Model the fold of this input.
Amino acid sequence: MKLKEWERKGLLREYLKNLIATQEEKLGIKHFGIPELVVTMDIPRNCYENGKIFLRYWDEEYLYNALGHFYLDKLCKKLGVVDLYPDLVENKEEITQWFEARDELIRDGIATYFEREMTGKEANFNDSEYPKTIEEFLRNKVYFLIRLYYDGGYHLVKPILDKFGVEEGCKKIILNLPRKEDMVELPRYRRKILNSKPNY
Done:
């Protein structure tokens, strides 16, 4: 397996450092150190957990996304916010609570921003596609969830991160996470954040 060979030769960490440097320059950020890479065929539901990125093979898009999770997790901890990345990861297979849907939407939206700003891939998602009821967020159909959390999450956060910059935009979202009533009015939530003043 190529990754195991790279790992043995100490190359894997160097390749990751290069990816991080490229992402930092493009996004105008500074990562909080270097995550641990775990090469395994047994990937958990989330590609990232508690400072570790799990991967089967070298995939830069996947790693750019996982680095978004790493950055967001470390920024949350710095700000004292534990909602998005609780220390005890349950690895639930289904979304059953509105706040789980919110956390997934924000996490995956920001991580997808970290990936797509590097790859140039566009999101084809419209405000009209967001659920209008909490029950719709809890629909556990795979395609619906993938499209909602990745494309819909990216569509939600992109204007905020573009306007305020990645770090400031992430802080605004982290410190003003959507409330239950915001989940059924996500375009309004986005406007509220966009109209807030910078925290300089």
Observations:
- The chain has one domain: 2-194.
- Residues 2-194 form one domain.
